[in-house]
Amino acid sequence: MIFAKIDFINLLPVHVFLKKRIQSSQIKSIINYKKSYPSKINKKLKKSKVDSAFVSSIASRGEKRLDYGIIARKNVRSVFLIPGKDKEDYQSQTSNALAKILNLHGEVLIGDKALKFFHENPDVETIDLAVEWEKKFNLPFVFATLCYRKNGKMLKNIMKDFKKRQIKIPQYILNEYSKRSNISNKNILEYLKLIDYDIRTKEKRAIKKFLSLTKQKGF
């Protein structure tokens, strides 16, 4: 099974879980990771170059998916807009579309680089897109969902025991991500408290709402 991995901090608990889960089973010999950023992974899944991945919500339309995603209930810190001249982030289709749905203008920033910017530039005005979505629709925002083209039964079996609260990130992995992103361990851990992964009724409503709005806008 080829699993595409969004190599951002927001999926760190999932990656730690998968690493432990796979090492303790026979799955290790049949799973292959492919790392990239969201918009590129979307294309890989659409072309069936990978079997499963967390893909941007905008690309999940028509795909089979499990009830896991990247979810922000209010502020997220890693997806925002700097007011001014419009500029999309090439790494994200969903966040670019979200800014347009919310009728916000400026530069979209996502991922680890956005989180780094947030902490290094406290005086710069930013608009958190998850906050604006929640204000407008009283719903969490689901940035990505776990989709698959094949091996769905295997994927469901792998993920069935995933519980965010039970995931302890080893210090060496935390240090590695901190060094790579130039974001402190403390800020990484605080950030991860803002992210959830379980898609329930309200999250499904949020996905449906977002996909309906993007369809209306022709995205």
Feature tags:
about 220 residues; about 20% strand; 3-stranded antiparallel beta sheet; 6-stranded mixed beta sheet; 9 strands; D-Maltodextrin-Binding Protein, domain 2; menaquinone biosynthesis; alpha+beta; lyase
Helical coverage, percent range: 40-55%
Query: Class by helix and strand content?
Result: alpha+beta
Strand percent estimate: 15-25%
Radius of gyration over alpha carbons?
17 Å
Pattern of helices and strands: EHEHEEEHEHEHEHHHEH
Low-confidence stretches: none
* CATH class category label: Alpha Beta
Q: If strands are numbered along the chain, what order do they take across the biggest sheet?
A: 2-1-3-8-4-9
Structure summary, number of beta strands? 9
End-to-end C-alpha gap = 30 Å
Q: What is the tally of helical segments?
A: 9
Main sheet makeup: 6 strands, mixed
CATH architecture: 3-Layer(aba) Sandwich
Global outline? globular
What would your notes on this structure say?
This protein is α+β, with helices and mostly antiparallel strands and 219 residues long. The chain has helices at residues 12-23, 38-46, 93-101, 111-120, 129-137, 152-159, 171-181, 185-192, 201-217, and strands at 2-6, 32-36, 52-56, 64-72, 79-83, 106-110, 127-128, 141-148, 195-198. The chain is globular, with a radius of gyration of 17 Å. The mean pLDDT is 90.
Report a brief summary of the structure.
By secondary structure, the chain is of the alpha+beta class. It has helices spanning 12-23, 38-46, 93-101, 111-120, 129-137, 152-159, 171-181, 185-192, 201-217; strands at 2-6, 32-36, 52-56, 64-72, 79-83, 106-110, 127-128, 141-148, 195-198.
